[in-house]
Amino acid sequence: MNSRDISLLVLSIIVWVYLVAGGIGQAVLAVDNEIWMDQSGATANIDLEQQGGGNLIGGVGSVAGTLTDFDFIGTTNTLDINQIGSSNLWKGDITADSYTGFFQFTGDSNDMTVSTDTSNTYGADSSNVNVNVTGSSNTMTLNQATSAAASTLDLDWIIQGSNNTITSSINIDQATNYMDIDGSDNTVTYTGTGVNASSGGYFWLDHTGGSRTFSVSQTSTQNNDWLKITSDGSNGSVCVEQDDQGTAVGC
After folding, report:
1. Letter string b/e over residues 63-83, b meaning 16 or more CB atoms within 10 A of that residue's CB
2. Cα–Cα distance between 229 and 201 in angstroms, integer?
3. pLDDT tens, residue by residue, 75-96
4. 180 vs 124, 183, 186, 198, 237, CA distance in Å?
């Protein structure tokens, strides 16, 4: 057994212990399930699934059982998160380059707050991230490469339901951010920044539903940005700002 197999085995044991402990706690003390994870290394394949309500995958600002780490560190890793139920929470830091993410949520009032490589340890290049949400009143926040540059990022959102809030901030470098949203009273806030000469991002929003609130800001300072918004529905507001070192604009 090599060192990578050992590290993954240890990780599996940690996750299993927390799931079992959470299950026991729920039976005795009505406490929900929690997962604590600290993964470091390359080419790992991690799959975490929780079913039921009020579950937590720990990370920054975790509360319930005073969880701390959700750390996913390395290059060319794959992370699959699947929370099925309502009022679930996932917070964490991803420090990764060229990683693949599948983040799936089914239910209402779930909360995802995730940041990727805020310290520019590896950069955040060439990642392929997919966020699928089915339900209402969910809050999804994904910040990609706040100090690094998310070169050739491919980020896809599929949101089905109403009253959802989606917030995304990307330090773009030829990054693509695609959102497919079906439902009313949804709110989208997207900020794309970039300072590299190769910066230039593409944002595409395809929406069906009424009473939407969209705020889009693209501010690459040394290259071009593109966007396409298709929205079919009544009521709401749409604000688009594109600023290339010009006079400050806004809505």
Report:
1. eebebeebbbbbbebebebeb
2. 14
3. 888 999 999 999 999 888 888 7
4. 23, 10, 12, 26, 18
**DSSP label at residue 147:** S
Measured distance CA(57)–CA(120) in Å, rounded: 23
- Claim: this prediction has a pTM higher than 0.85: no
Asked if 214 and 188 count as a contact pair (C-beta separation under 8 A), the reply is yes
- 166-202 pLDDT, tens digit per residue, is 999 888 777 889 999 999 999 999 988 876 655 667 8
Q: What is the C-alpha to C-alpha distance for residues 159 and 180, in angstroms, rounded to an integer? A: 6
> Which residue positions in the chain have pLDDT lower than 70?
1-31, 59-69, 118-124, 145-151, 195-200, 222-223, 245-251
With beta carbons less than 8 A apart as the criterion, state whether 54 and 70 touch. no
Residue 239, sorted as left (phi over 0), alpha (psi -120 to 50) or beta, turns out to be beta
Q: Counting every residue, how long is the chain?
A: 251
- Residue 178's contacts (CB-CB under 8 Å, 6 or more residues apart) are 155, 156, 157, 203, 204, 205, 206
Gyration radius of the chain's alpha carbons: 19
Other Cβ atoms less than 10 A from the Cβ of 201: the count is 26
Alpha-carbon distance of 39 to 45, in angstroms, equals 10
DSSP 8-state code for residue 67: -
